[in-house]
Amino acid sequence: HFSVEQVLLAARSGHLLPAGVTRFIVTGRVLHLDVDQEGDVRRFFDGLAEGATVTMPVETQFWGAVYGSLIDRFGINWGFHFDLE
User: Is the pTM here over 0.85, yes or no?
Assistant: First the structure.
């Protein structure tokens, strides 16, 4: 799913969502990816890290998730999330 403010667009095609992404949410100006596997957090994070500003390194967080965030070289804020439970 793509969630853009109050609009929800279902996107089930693998061409729209990368493999391993279960949910794609835009909140304000941050693109959040909820992924299927813990390793995907690091994979997507590392894929955008070159030239990026890391705002939160990928780590296990107190709320029970692996999460990291960055601002890519184009100025887009990204958050990557995997729920451990």
Answer: no
